[in-house]
Specification:
Pfam families: 2-Hacid_dh, 2-Hacid_dh_C. InterPro entries: D-isomer_2-hydroxyacid_DH (IPR050223), D-isomer_2_OHA_DH_cat_dom (IPR006139), D-isomer_DH_CS (IPR029753), D-isomer_DH_NAD-bd (IPR006140), NAD(P)-bd_dom_sf (IPR036291). One of its GO terms (cellular component) is cytosol. This is D-glycerate dehydrogenase. By secondary structure, the protein is an alpha/beta fold. The chain has two domains: 115 residues, 3-Layer(aba) Sandwich (Rossmann fold); 184 residues, NAD(P)-binding Rossmann-like Domain (Rossmann fold, 3-Layer(aba) Sandwich), CATH 3.40.50. Helix content is 37%, strand content 15%. The chain has a seven-stranded parallel beta sheet. Strands 2-1-3-4-5 form a five-stranded parallel beta sheet. α1 runs parallel beside α13 and α5 crosses α7. The chain starts with a strand and ends in a 10-residue tail after the last helix. The model has no long low-confidence stretch (mean pLDDT 96).
Length: 322
């Protein structure tokens, strides 16, 4: 019996690539250069399984490229870069890698929160530029965290992990907005206050951290109107999806001082970063590092591999989406 032909669109951790190669007829992207839309479309007719990442746009035109691929095993938890309706129309299964990156992403959310609150990005740039004149009482005054309200937009696994770090580690109070209330035991542990209305949360929170999926009803969820509702002098943290935020409106609020700061790890058209943000001192900009530790990236790959194995064995897929 011939092995499944599998295309991996970017470099994955070595251990995962080795495991894939042992079991399947795998084509790896040795150069790690992003594939063009044309190349991705052509792959749909040449391979049985496509293994993309969040940097690949698997749209309807790509999916229409051929009829051979029957599994898109995505490396990553987000799947708004994949046209699920087009995939379903061609009977193509789509999977992701949930759960394994919860702690890593929560760590980055806290990194951004701390950096913005304590103006660490500004301080490092000043020091590296040779402009630090020494310690003084009024230099780069930021915000304390203890007793401040962390407002979570969405209350899934990553949001809860972030809330635990903030509450137990830094003494922050927790509030959240979502479609429904979270597990009562979690709410009790964190002393978390539920807001059924987004604006109610935004008015109360000193720090707003976004934890919702991208696309659909969350597109530009934090727009100019939402930002105007936010507490003056508050902070916005985004480790979710870039399209959740109107970045022009965010830049305006940062320039005016309505918001004290922002910390971002994701952007709408990566690797492009909204130009309006690049010249601002009070925003921390990271290059999508949410899951970037060796243990997590390998675990994500092994999770994707488990989905490919299940497909090859005609077993139930562990992580279907759509």
């Amino acid at each position: 019996m011939s092995k499944l032909k599998v295309l991996v669109t970017r470099r994955w951790p070595e251990a995962v690539e080795r495991a894939l190669a042992e079991e399947f007829d795998v084509t790896l992207n040795e150069s790690d250069v992003p594939m063009s839309q044309q190349a991705l479309a052509a792959a749909m007719a040449e391979y049985d399984v496509l293994c993309p990442t969040v940097s690949d746009r698997i749209d309807a035109d790509v999916i229409a490229g051929g009829d051979r691929v029957k599994l898109i095993a995505n490396y990553g938890v987000g799947f708004d870069h994949i046209d699920l309706a087009a995939a379903k129309a061609k009977n193509i299964a789509v999977t992701n890698t949930p759960g394994v990156l919860t702690d890593a992403t929560a760590d980055i959310a806290m990194t951004l929160l701390l950096m913005t609150a304590r103006r660490a990005g500004e301080g490092e740039r000043e020091l590296r530029a040779g402009e630090w004149s020494g310690w003084r009482p009024t230099h780069l005054i930021g915000s304390a965290l203890k007793g401040k309200v962390l407002g979570l937009v969405g209350m899934g696994r990553i949001a809860i992990a972030t809330a635990r770090r903030a509450h137990h580690g830094f003494g922050m109070r927790v509030a959240y907005y979502g479609r429904r209330e979270c597990d009562p035991a979690v709410a009790q542990e964190l002393g978390a206050t539920f807001h059924p209305d987004l604006n109610g949360l935004l008015r109360e929170a000193d720090f707003v951290s976004l934890h919702v999926p991208g696309g659909g009803e969350t597109a530009n969820l934090i727009d100019a109107d939402a930002i105007a509702v936010m507490k003056p002098g508050s902070y916005l943290i985004n480790t979710a999806r870039g399209g959740v935020v109107d970045h022009e409106a965010l830049a305006d609020a940062l320039r005016s001082g309505h918001l004290a700061g922002a910390g971002l790890d994701v952007y709408p058209a990566e690797p492009q970063v909204p130009a309006a943000l690049l010249g601002l001192e009070n925003v921390v900009l990271l290059p999508h590092l949410g899951s970037a530790n060796s243990e997590t990236r390998e675990a994500m790959g092994m999770c994707a591999l488990a989905n490919v194995r299940a497909y090859a064995s005609d077993k139930e897929l562990p992580n279907p989406v759509g």
